[in-house]
TrEMBL record:
<dbReference type="InterPro" id="IPR001647">
    <property type="entry name" value="HTH_TetR"/>
</dbReference>
<dbReference type="InterPro" id="IPR009057">
    <property type="entry name" value="Homeodomain-like_sf"/>
</dbReference>
<feature type="domain" description="HTH tetR-type">
    <location>
        <begin position="15"/>
        <end position="76"/>
    </location>
</feature>
<dbReference type="GO" id="GO:0003677">
    <property type="term" value="F:DNA binding"/>
</dbReference>
<dbReference type="Pfam" id="PF17929">
    <property type="entry name" value="TetR_C_34"/>
</dbReference>
<protein>
    <submittedName>
        <fullName>TetR/AcrR family transcriptional regulator</fullName>
    </submittedName>
</protein>
<dbReference type="InterPro" id="IPR041483">
    <property type="entry name" value="TetR_C_34"/>
</dbReference>
<feature type="DNA-binding region" description="H-T-H motif">
    <location>
        <begin position="39"/>
        <end position="58"/>
    </location>
</feature>
<keyword id="KW-0238">DNA-binding</keyword>
Length: 240
């Protein structure tokens, strides 16, 4: 990077700098660096800036990665929506449910960087950020969650409010939880290789996500068949 890169003056220039930093972070993680191993110093060197200059645009390493997670998640939802719109829709609910689970699992399996960002979001990325950054991220995450829910509801029918939040959370838990379980340590991978019985415990990431999402959708639909009740009284659902 040139010296001029660090001297952003206008809002447009600052936005360009932020995009360049995010693109570099994505490039580093795409090369195989784990989220836990990406330091702000290493990122600054890769961008061609001093660490202090990177901090002009993002307050911490975690703030960079939360912004990257937001961008990558939105791009993934674009792909999910495109897949669901373009493919032929089965008539029955059960087949439609399986189709949704397959699209979600297939597309996220092709995005390992996003899977790892989701897996580390609550335990790593949401720490070491200010309340302002945390609130901004959560607002964006909520909007994306409701977009995901909308894509599902358009094909399976409207869900109660509590089920809508549970659906979004279940998908993220499937993406993040399965990611860790499907990446065994070198020692565990060797144990799987040595013992065929143990190898049955080694999960395929795409299959694991598909089954977890399909199971969550099945349960949420079953629980919402009867009029939704909370504490024994029916509740009226509202939409933003």
């Amino acid at each position: 990077m040139t010296a001029e890169f660090a001297r952003a003056r206008s809002d447009e220039q600052r936005a360009m700098r932020r995009r360049a930093i995010l693109a570099t972070a994505a490039e580093v993680l795409g090369d195989g660096t784990r989220v836990a191993d990406l330091s702000l110093n290493a990122l600054a060197r890769r961008v061609g800036l001093a660490k202090s200059n990177v901090l002009r645009y993002f307050e911490t390493r975690e703030a960079v990665l939360l912004a990257l997670l937001d961008a990558e998640y939105g791009s993934w939802l674009d792909e999910v929506e495109g897949e669901l719109v373009q493919s032929d829709a089965p008539a029955d609910t059960a087949s439609q449910l399986e189709r949704i689970a397959d699209v979600i699992s297939r597309t996220i399996a092709a995005r390992p960087m996003l899977a790892e960002l989701v897996a580390t979001s609550a335990v790593v990325l949401e720490h070491n950020v200010s309340a302002e950054i945390a609130a901004d991220y959560k607002r964006r995450a909520y909007a994306q969650a409701m977009r995901l829910v909308g894509l599902v509801e358009a094909r399976l029918g409207e869900l109660p409010d509590a089920s809508r939040i549970a659906l979004a959370a279940s998908v993220n838990l499937a993406i993040g939880g399965a990611w860790g379980m499907c990446r065994p340590s070198p020692g565990m991978a060797e144990a799987y290789a040595r013992d065929p019985e143990l190898a049955a415990m080694q999960l395929d990431y795409r299959v694991a996500v598909r089954e977890l999402v399909a199971t969550a959708l099945t349960g949420l639909l079953a629980r919402s068949v009867a009029p939704w009740q909370q504490n024994g009284t029916s509740t009226t659902r509202s939409r933003p």
